[in-house]
Amino acid sequence: MTEPEITVDKSAEENGLANMVAELLRANIESSAHKKAVFSRMKGSVGLFATDAEVKVTLVFDRGRCVVHDGILEGTGVTVTADSDSILELSNVRLVGGLPCYFDKAGRAVVSKVFGRAIRIRGLLLHPVTLTRLGIVLSVN
Amino acid sequence: MSMKFPSEEWVTAFVTAINESPEYKEGGKPWTYGVTALVVNPQPEIGLTEAYGIWLDLHEGVCREAHHCTVEEAQTAPFCIFGDYARWKQVIHKELEPVKGMMQGKLKLKGNLQIIVRNVKAAQALVTCATRVPTQFLDEP
Questions:
Q1: Which of B97, B101, B105 is facing A15, going by the closest CB pair?
Q2: Are strands B3-5 and B36-40 parallel, antiparallel or unpaired?
Q3: Separation between Cα atoms, residue A58 and residue A18, nearest integer Å
Q4: Which residue of B has its CA nearest to A141?
Q5: Which of A82, A85, B47, B133 is deepest in the core (most CB within 10 A)?
């Protein structure tokens, strides 16, 4: 397995969310072999839009590599739109058996926000695997 | 009586607000990760010629000790948050949530982001305490 590489694109150097996501990914992958293995299988792009902060990023995954770009790139498969606290809540979902658990307090809070449209996910039905993998590599638990 | 921000007397009043806050006692209970330092970046036009550091020894919902420190000392803390004067003013006015500020790149964190994400409620409770300190700002008459 090649060493994971996570970089922030030049366009996103001043973007706080881009730097936070990149740092979280690096720390999570470094501290968990499971997350590292999942990361190395990821391919595709995911957009994150923190509405209250008016900050957007796109994570482009390519089997062991991830580049974080400023803004939502054209052709991005999945986009998660929520306020900044809710975006952070996604990282607080626990992993059980290596998968995000939506049955405990933190998981139920996220599900409830998805159903209440406080967290909007475009591409949820078309890209469930990408979303599940994103949940794994971004989880701090 | 309003306290000048930043100043030793403001720091003392902040500590009192933290230790009298039931929200911080509860929200900050899981925090056992050491000192958090806050740094106000220099702004000579309002009389802040040097960076002003605030050293907060927080532990399990209590502030055990606090003092004004240099930026060099602040950087030795496990967690250090930097921001311009206007940003801290927005934080104290509760116009800028710390998470949103970090996503926008207005506040910069040095420290383990995984721990911050897990303890975001403690950070929010700490900010609420700052809003309770009667504050006189340097850029206001």
A1: B105
A2: unpaired
A3: 8
A4: B118
A5: A82
- pTM for the model stands at 0.91
Q: To 10 degrees, the CA torsion angle through A5, A11, A17, A19?
A: 40
Could you read off the pLDDT of B9-35 as tens digits, one per residue? 999 999 999 999 999 999 999 999 999
Chain B residues inside the 8 Å CB shell of A86? none
Which ipTM was obtained for this model? 0.88
CB contacts of A22 in chain B (<8 Å) are none
Cβ A4 vs Cβ A64: under 8 Å: yes
Chain A residues whose beta carbon lies within 8 Å of the beta carbon of residue B105:
14-16, 19
| Diameter over CA atoms, chain B | 41
Structure tokens at B21: 């806050």
